[in-house]
Amino acid sequence: MAYLSDIEIAQACKMKHITEIAETAHVDEKYIEQYGRYKAKVDPALIKETDKKDGKLILVTAITPTPAGEGKTTTTIGLADGLRRIGKDVTVALREPSLGPVFGVKGGAAGGGYAQVVPMEDINLHFTGDFHAIGAANNLLAAMLDNHIQQGNSLNIDPRKITWKRCVDMNDRQLRFVVDGLGGKPNGTPREDGFDITVASEIMAVFCLSSSITDLKERLSRIVVGYTYDDQPVTAGQLNAVGAMAALLKDALKPNLVQTLEGTPAFVHGGPFANIAHGCNSVMATKLALKMGDYTVTEAGFGADLGAEKFLDIKCRMADLTPDAVVVVATVRALKMHGGLDKKQLNTEDLNALEKGIPNLLRHVSNIKNVYKLPCVVAVNRFPTDTDNEIDFIVSKCRELGVNTILSTVWAEGGKGGEELAKEVVRICENEKGDFTFSYELDCSIEEKIEAVVKKVYGGKGITVLPAAKKQIDRLTELGYGNMPVCIAKTQYSFSDDPSKLGAPEDFTVTVKNVKVSAGAGFIVVLTGDIMTMPGLPRVPAAEKIDVDENGKITGLF
Hints:
Helices cover 36% and strands 19% of the residues. With 558 residues, the protein is α/β, with parallel strands linked by helices. The protein is built from 19 helices and 25 strands.
């Protein structure tokens, strides 16, 4: 049987006009700004001007990712469609894809199979221009910083202590380390520099955590761009860059409205990476979605130790959100990889590998239930090669933790394949009350907060703080940044900071190599391992297979 590709399925969909989707989402036409027939920006003033009570918030997260795939975004969309099929008033809130992975190795991020958001090509490419606006604001700040030094440097900025990088939304390893300002005095001050990918920019984090234009400007003003010769922080506010940056971001700040293949309203807005940033769509989009639906389904990037931890400890804390239920997505295939099986061996039943790999799922589930004290369900994204014995094994192990397991077939069946999961989510929301608790309190020291996440969430025995990082922690505490939450940047492939440690490793320590402040976003970034803030393209980039015909039809975008 020949399967249609994701893009072929998306292109075969008869989309509804965006005004019809807005009507389904209870958004009056006066609040929408149309971008063609199938996309719109929504005025966030609607959040304050509606008297509708917030709906239930459902967080979708997953086990530690593997090359076998988990289908978290697909499950998020399919669950929303499933909720709508059983008669619920529902919205979905998702991140926007970055061009880097789209043209690199990961491909698009608009779901898959029959659980997608559309127009898929637009969402995966330029969409409404939000990322370009974020990149422009980031680079305006960089230009004003270097110009300040060129024009006399009244703030006494040390060019060797500049922390602000330029950015571009593309995987380009050539730009990781550059020397710029060459060519003599008229062309700037020579210095070492570098680029981040746009989704790693602090502007992206600021953008996604802002609750209004006023909040955006306050956050932008606090961004630390470097330090003076006597080691005092220099901010974007001191460079008088805030007004112009906000002007570039004002339209981008409005959440985007699109639809699923089945016509469920979807707010797709913002997209920080979850291994180097906080990995969630914008606060504005989430709050708007909560106002417009009785149930809002959202997701957090990578495994629950990264995306969900940051969603709960950072985003929920800052935006005063409390999830009503959490869905942890797993696949039999991925759990067998965690049990040591090679990707080529996943199509045959192997309960031994499954038994070795399932502790990964159980630790994620235990964290949601016992650390964050939230009700939880496991969604097994079923593949045709999964056997009943393998499924039964997962069901019995999760039941021991007091968590139900539901089979999801949304990739193949769309909302129909998510109905059972939808019913369980509704049951949880109606019958189980969480007692939402953070994994640490803000008045702990920076080191205590890092250690709390490592011990409680990752399952490690502690942290090793390198001397340079210890010095940074002491200085940031001295500067008054010690009461911020921590955003730990680590590999997405393991609970530990070593990507080769699969499953649920124990007795490991996490090495803290570098600590810096994202004062605008409002968190401390903790770097462990070798975290790339500018990825590179693979040997065969996805870009090589993408094309467009004379009618404007795109192919090869998967």
